[in-house]
Specification:
Blueprint: H1 6-69, H2 77-84, E1 88-93, E2 96-99, E3 102-103, H3 106-117, E4 124-125, E5 129-131, E6 134-142, E7 148-154, H4 159-164
Length: 183
């Protein structure tokens, strides 16, 4: 094997140093840029989740406050439902259930009558249930005349709020406390 001249040794050394520098720069820049993108996306997603949480809790609190403030008779159920935006409004009076169509059938009313018997003066919020493919939440409260009102909220309407805050390339899923998928 032939000995390399001093000039070739210097060129080889410079080439090796430049190659190592480029490789090190590439690896470190790739790592830091990836980390920056990851941290930035994580912050943006966390921020959007907080915004959605605040918006949904504000909307639900508004619905609860509306339910507390509504005072209506059996004759005003359809009007109350239409004006308040609830999915369904049920009033229990003396173990009879009334909705916007009048007196409810026994099969449909029994669950409301059973729930009314244990209802206290404080408003109660049920777990999310899925009925006919719609996630529903029920607010119930006993009135001073011993009637019990049930206000059913269709949570699928809140999916537009979640969709508005979704970031391109991310996936948002809204799940209730009892595990029911809302969106």
């Amino acid at each position: 094997m032939k000995n390399l001249s001093f000039k070739n040794k210097i060129i080889a050394l410079i080439t090796i140093i430049v190659s190592i520098t480029i490789l090190t720069s590439y690896v470190s820049v790739n790592y830091f840029i990836s980390q920056y993108i990851n941290d930035s996306d994580t912050r943006n997603i966390s921020h959007n989740i907080e915004l959605v949480k605040k918006k949904l809790s504000t909307d639900l609190q508004r619905q609860v406050n509306l339910a507390k403030s509504l005072n209506f008779s059996m004759m005003d159920i359809a009007e109350t439902k239409e004006n308040s935006g609830f999915y369904k409004v049920v009033k229990i009076v003396n173990d009879y259930a009334f909705d916007d169509s009048g007196i409810m059938e026994e099969d449909a009313s029994q669950a409301f009558i059973n729930a009314a018997s244990s209802q206290t003066e404080m408003p109660a919020i049920s777990d999310v249930t899925v009925t006919n493919g719609k996630p529903l939440l029920t607010i119930s409260m006993r009135r001073s005349d011993d009637s019990v009102d049930f206000f059913v909220i269709d949570l699928s309407e809140m999916s537009s709020i979640v969709a508005d805050y979704a970031i391109s390339g991310s996936y948002i899923e809204l799940i209730s406390q009892n595990g029911t998928v809302i969106y």
